[in-house]
Every structure is written in structure tokens, then in C-alpha cells.
Amino acid sequence: MTTAILDRTALGRILPGSGTLSARPLPQGRFNTCWHVADADSAHAYLLKINNREGEAHLQQMAAAMRSARAGGVAVPEVLRVGSDPGLGPFLLQEWLDGHTFAEARQDRAIEADLWPRLGHQIALLHSIRPPRSLMATPASRARQLSDLIDALIRHRLIPTALAEAALQCGLLLAEQLGNLQCVNTHQDIHPDNILIRPGGTIALLDFDHATTAEYASDFVKPDRWCLPSADDRQRMLDAYWQQRGEVVDPLFEQRLAFHRLVITLSYFLYWHGRDPTQLPGCTAALRTELERT
């Protein structure tokens, strides 16, 4: 696909009645090919996501998650169109939000302390929305999730047997401690590139490709690992989260976080196995570190 074809042919179908349109490619993610689309006449800007891998059903599911989040007060880009184009294939068109990602702001040393309670507030709003399906996490369901994941790693010979056994033993102990818990509406991918700091300092959440019904603590793994610079900032985020949810602090939060941190660390083996196997030694080192930490 070329930029010229995207500009002259497909954009007119996706944005009929618009003015002079231009498009520039954006860094490609795991799921989507993305374009920034600008209308020179109206000064409107859009984000166009094209997904020929998972298809329209995936984009419809993502659009539903974004619309639900937006209706519940979460700062999320507005979905304008979702469907399939004869030239482009499955696509999602959303508004373009101005601002800088957390990753960009951190590079520019522009992260301010009040970001953390604002982020906690947004996550709490998302978790307070009724999920599309009711789901209860139990010790048995967690054990099944963990066992299935480790079995897949062993089947693909991605992890030494002794390390797999240690991960399973650690995870099963945590799974049992956590008891039963009602799952919530989650994002599942809150990392530095998916946190947008808008003009004025408001926070928006981007990229709902992984959104699903899950345990609330799973949404804190990536912010905890890749965003938070200090224990004080972490506490500010969590205080705002619990305050917005109107609940007392969960005494098992750290154990829940540890379980989901382990699951996500294990899942990276499968992710990099299909994309860049040179990353697998780093996954092994990260898993050993996680087991020592837990």
C-alpha cells in the first residue's frame, strides 16, 4: 500500500464530502497500520487504523470498548467510523487528539506530579463501567490460566523445565491466596505510548486493542513496571484510584499485582517467539528476576 493510493482513493470513500486530505504513516503497532489524516479545509485531523490481521470483528470489538469507556467518562478518542473498505480492508477511523505521549513527555522531562492521580482517576472510571460480560476470577480459573500458558511455553520449548516448574509453583500459591473476585472492564495495555498527556495536563487513554473483562490489578502491571518513577508517585495514583472507585484499599493488591505481573512476564515469551526470537533471553532473565522478587 502506498501513501498516494491511500490519499487519492481510499480516503475519499472513508471521509466523503471532506476537503483536501493528506495522510502520513505512523509507527506500526502489533495489530494495526496507522495513519494520521488531515483535512486542510476544515483543519480536522483523524487517526486511521487498518487491520488486515485480526479483521473487522476485532476492530468492532475495540470500537465498542472505546465507546463504552467514553460514555463512562473516560478520556478516550471518539470513534467516527468502523468497517471494511474494498481497497484498504478492515479499518477504524477515530478523532486525532493533540498532546504528547507519556514516553515523549518523559524524554522531555515534562512529567509533573499531578499526572499520577489523574491517571489513577481515569483507570478507576474505566473499571467502574459495567463490563460486557460478568466474570468471576477464582483460584481455579487463575491456576488454569497459568497452567495453560506454561504448557504452551514448554510445548514450544521456550522455557527451561526447572524455570517453568518454579513459575508454576509460585503462581499457584498466589492464585490460591487471592480467592474469588469479580472482574471489571479493563484496558490491559496502559504503557508509556498509550497514555496521552493533553494540553492543560488532562490524561487520555489510547489503543484499546487488548481491552477485555479481567481482574482490576492486571491494569496496573504495565504502569507499575514502565511508568512510575517513585513509591510516592505510585501511592498518589493508587490513592486517587481507590477514592474514585469509592472503595477501601484492597489488602491483597500487592499479591494480585504479583500474580498478574508473573502472567504478563510469561506471555512475553509467546509474543517475542513469533516476532523477534532474539528477545527470548531477555524474557528468561526477566522471569528469573520476577521469581526472585515474588
Question: If you had to describe this structure to a student in words, what would you say it looks like?
Answer:
The protein has 294 residues and is α+β, with helices and mostly antiparallel strands. The protein has two domains: 3-95, Phosphorylase Kinase, domain 1, CATH 3.30.200.20; 100-293, Aminoglycoside 3'-phosphotransferase, Chain: A, domain 2, CATH 3.90.1200. 47% of the residues lie in helices and 17% in strands. The chain contains ten helices and twelve strands. It has helices spanning 3-14, 56-71, 102-107, 115-128, 139-155, 161-177, 221-226, 231-245, 253-273, 280-293, and strands at residues 21-25, 33-39, 45-50, 79-85, 89-95, 100-101, 136-137, 181-182, 184-186, 195-197, 203-205, 212-214. It has a five-stranded antiparallel β-sheet, with helices on both faces. Strands 6-10-11 form a three-stranded antiparallel β-sheet. Strands 7-8 form a two-stranded antiparallel sheet. Strand 10 (195-197) and strand 11 (203-205) form a beta hairpin. The protein is globular and about 60 Å long. The chain starts with a helix and ends with a helix. The relative contact order is 0.12. The model has no long low-confidence stretch (mean pLDDT 94).
Features:
47% helix; alpha+beta; 294 residues; Aminoglycoside 3'-phosphotransferase, Chain: A, domain 2; 5-stranded antiparallel β-sheet; 10 helices; Phosphorylase Kinase, domain 1; single chain
